[in-house]
Amino acid sequence: MGLIVQKYGGSSVADAQSIKRVAKRIAEARRAGDDVVVVVSAMGDTTDELIDLANDITPLPPSREMDILLTAGERISMSLLAMAIANLGVDAQSFTGQQAGVITDDVHGRARILDVKATRIREVLDAGSVAIVAGFQGVTEHTNDVTTLGRGGSDTTAVALAAGLDADVCEIYTDVDGVFTADPRIVPTARKLDRITYEEMLDMAASGAKVLMLRCVEYARRTQVPIHVRSSFSGHTGTLVTDEPLDREGEGQMEQPIIAGVAHDRSEAKITLIGVADVPGSAARVFEVVAAAGVNIDMIVQNVSAAQTGLTDISFTLPAEDGKKATAALREAQETLGHAELQYDDAIGKVSLVGAGMKSHPGISAKLFGALRDAGINIEMISTSEIRVSVVTRADQLDDAVRAIHSAFGLDSADGEAVVYGGSGR
Ligand code: ADP
Ligand code: ASP
Ligand code: MG
């Protein structure tokens, strides 16, 4: 008998019917003899709807109140799911993040889990019940304030509980059959991966593949929790995220494929400062202002200065949701920074190619740029790491860019189209 943590995303519990369907799966797992802890997200697009509602009230909702509001979504789904399981004759009890002992720091809206004090959950398991835990939320240690972990945070709750309870596996149930070589909503011919390493999954998640939240992959890698991403709508085996080598009989250790997949991100914006003095300390001053505003940046491009003027342009990308904060801070500091003009552009997209095999294979970037050229897509910014190449394009060309790169690297599946079982893609 083992212990499994199962996480069900919003599209898996979107309505009463879906909740009953998921409850059946959970009851079956429990009846098969395993201890089962379930982490659940808010129903369907509830979180987005609550955010819209808050924005209708005020343009800048206080982050503490926002967290209390958003955690309500998971309270609804957790209690309904517990009722549905009990209805099938299996004991189940639901718990908020606070009740489940999820302790976080005090950064509202993107709190980090510091500890999981799972005593209460263990008692429930010892009594033979299923424990249902509200995802995406916790409580601060000293002030008892309710926090949320950032969008997609239920994935992190699940991995943290799996690590805290020393579970055998953390199953992430969603609306597609696993991790694919690209988002199946954009590339229907994307191929399901049987297995992906933590390192590659980290870069895929950091590059926008929201099938797993970035922090959950970081947490899983650190604690070596194996993740199984799979569909709650089918019985198919999904994708295993692990560093364990394949040990299927007869196969030995297979060489890793060069490319894991293509990820995309529509959530960023670009700021360009025109006419910055090309002297030591300029970049430091600009990014000190951005950092002081609490904004994380992603790519940076700085041109060589025009010889006559000694002035240059600096461009960088950042989460579009931080756009107002960053531009306000930079405008305020314009006199000190000395730039002539600030341009803000949120009609950009980022496409990234990820694969551990890149380290030892030349020509990957050239092939990627060639694919974009053939598709008539202009490249606005480029950044690379050892296992990733990322490119910024116009937002309305992003889907075409993803498809062009996906097929240029031969990632298309030969066995038909990927199934998207639910969700609005929001
Ligand atoms: P959940 O509500 O279950 O947490 P999410 O919407 O957060 O689901 O994540 C699942 C979605 O992630 C899929 O429906 C798919 O559109 C998207 N996605 C993006 N990139 C990938 C990828 N490489 N493989 C699978 N799904 C992906
Ligand atoms: N409900 C939260 C969100 O939509 C958390 C999650 O689904 O993982 O981001
Ligand atoms: Mg998610």
Which helices and strands, and how do they pair?
Elements: E1 3-8, H1 16-31, E2 35-40, H2 46-57, H3 63-86, E3 92-95, E4 102-104, E5 113-116, H4 119-126, E6 130-134, E7 137-140, E8 146-148, H5 154-164, E9 169-174, E10 195-196, H6 198-206, H7 214-223, E11 227-231, E12 239-241, E13 261-265, E14 268-277, H8 282-292, E15 300-302, E16 311-319, H9 323-332, H10 334-337, E17 341-345, E18 348-354, H11 364-374, E19 381-385, E20 388-394, H12 398-408
Parallel strand pairs: 1-2, 1-9, 2-6, 3-6, 4-7, 9-11, 10-12
Antiparallel strand pairs: 4-5, 7-8, 11-12, 13-18, 14-16, 14-17, 15-16, 18-20, 19-20
The structure holds adenosine-5'-diphosphate, aspartic acid and magnesium ion (MG).
Structural class by sheet pairing and helices: alpha/beta
Q: Give the rounded overall mean pLDDT.
A: 94
Task: Please name the CATH architecture of the domain at 3-253.
Answer: 3-Layer(aba) Sandwich
Rg, alpha carbons = 23 Å
Identify every distinct bound molecule in the structure, by name, code or SMILES. Answer: adenosine-5'-diphosphate, aspartic acid, magnesium ion
CATH topology of the domain at 3-253: Carbamate kinase
Shape: globular
Binding site for substrate: 47, 74
EC number: 2.7.2.4
GO biological process, one term: lysine biosynthetic process via diaminopimelate
GO cellular component, one term: cytosol
Q: What descriptors fit this protein?
A:
Aspartokinase, binds adenosine-5'-diphosphate, 4-stranded mixed sheet, binds magnesium ion, ATP binding, 426 residues, binds aspartic acid, alpha/beta, Carbamate kinase, 24% strand
